[in-house]
Amino acid sequence: xxxxxxxxxxxxxxxxxxxxxxxxxxxxxxxxxxxxxxxxxxxxxxxxxxxxxxxxxxxxxxxxxxxxxxxxxxxxxxxxxxxxxxxxxxxxxxxxxxxxxxxxxxxxxxxxxxxxxxxxxxxxxxxxxxxxxxxxxxxxxxxxxxxxxxxxxxxxxxxxxxxxxxxxxxxxxxxxxxxxxxxxxxxxxxxxxxxxxxxxxxxxxxxxxxxxxxxxxxxxxxxxxxxxxxxxxxxxxxxxxxxxxxxxxxxxxxxxxxxxxxxxxxxxxxxxxxxxxxxxxxxxxxxxxxxxxxxxxxxxxxxxxxxxxxxxxxxxxxxxxxxxxxxxxxxxxxxxxxxxxxxxxxxxxxxxxxxxxxxxxxxxxxxxxxxxxxxxxxxxxxxxxxxxxxxxxxxxxxxxxxxxxxxxxxxxxxxxxxxxxxxxxxxxxxxxxxxxxxxxxxxxxxxxxxxxxxxxxxxxxxxxxxxxxxxxxxxxxxxxxxxxxxxxxxxxxxxxxxxxxxxxxxxxxxxxxxxxxxxxxxxxxx
Length: 526
Known about the structure:
Layout: H1 5-8, H2 15-37, H3 39-47, H4 91-95, H5 98-107, H6 109-120, E1 122-127, E2 137-141, H7 142-158, E3 166-169, H8 177-189, E4 192-195, H9 199-214, E5 218-221, H10 223-235, E6 245-248, H11 255-267, E7 274-281, E8 286-289, E9 302-303, E10 309-314, E11 328-334, E12 345-351, E13 355-356, E14 369-370, E15 374-376, E16 380-383, E17 391-394, H12 395-403, E18 408-417, E19 426-434, H13 440-455, E20 461-465, H14 467-474, E21 485-487, E22 490-494, E23 503-507, H15 514-524
Parallel strand pairs: 3-4, 3-5, 5-6, 6-7, 18-21, 19-20
Antiparallel strand pairs: 1-2, 7-8, 9-14, 10-11, 11-12, 12-15, 13-14, 16-17, 18-19, 22-23
């Protein structure tokens, strides 16, 4: 049992105490776990001339180098790069530690061996989804799974769950953090959770059967998929009058999407529904939640767990650490992870409100919070829309624009090359399913005006579809994540037989390759 005040009072400590206790725990973590047992960081920090004495405060964390996803990708010289980030103690070195010997004297060698196995032996795997890079396996030990259950329980508490509630988990059944965070969190919290496996397992009709059968108080899943399910439920006249919470993860949740989800829930007979967003990523091995709020009230941010990890907000261009409540890129360092461990991990996620230690105005917790909208750096894409110059388009903004448009039921942005010629101009095609009786002519005009006002571009075409056609375009029931932005632009490649000769072109793969990615991860992680 961890009796540190950082754990026992994680949601009530003032900022100075949090930072001091985090610095102390970081030093112990580096000394006891990372430096002696991480192949990557052990050699990296020794080569940099850094040791535990170099870290006296959280400000000293800046002395450690950043890690990003490229550092974990396989190369010709490092074909199993991710394994270098796995904590792998030498059994003899571990057994000769004074602390290990002392524990063996008091508790017996068999019990100490069992405890060390639980702490360090990998027994579970999740992976990144592979949308912006190759999928990367992240290994968990029993110690990590205990933390996953702990953070899941805390997330349920922040979201306002009660043990008498019934939850329907619609996250896809896969080596995917969101599903397992929900599973272990529900088990630790002690609440009924029915896991449908998402669209790939039960399909949309399967979700509706679950809803009719168990009458859930809470639906948990990805925003786009939950929206499709509720839309279909409304069309079929499904009643779900006990529904109180929609808990969403895996994608951004713009305010417009929240309002549409609440409206659909009300069509099912739900009287009072709140929408709670969560933020998590594979590399952190945990997720964080907002506390419930009215759909028209501003978010108070994601409540963090200061005993299990440190967040920094840095300038995305210079890497400079920024002061509290300043926009920037999120960087994460664990404080209690085993298995796969990354330090000062650059998430590629941008937050526009920054990190705050102030008391939450909604629930009163004093835990650190991430405030504002979170967007992906990778959703900033260069497009050649005219013959003169390229244009940098922020698709995060376009997502908010489309979800906030009341006349839009569902949408997809498709990028192509004119005439499928890699040397021609880029095209942006907007696929839309209308909501209600919105006029195609008026909606198309409104969308073109919104696009130009927000991004100074116009869609090349706007194509209207039925709800069922949009479900097919999104890959509902076939993909782990619904495809809202697809890039079908061919990618130029140099011929392997003659690099100086003629160029050949092949089409790029679709962005969503999670099914094959998951199989690849499982095969390569053994």
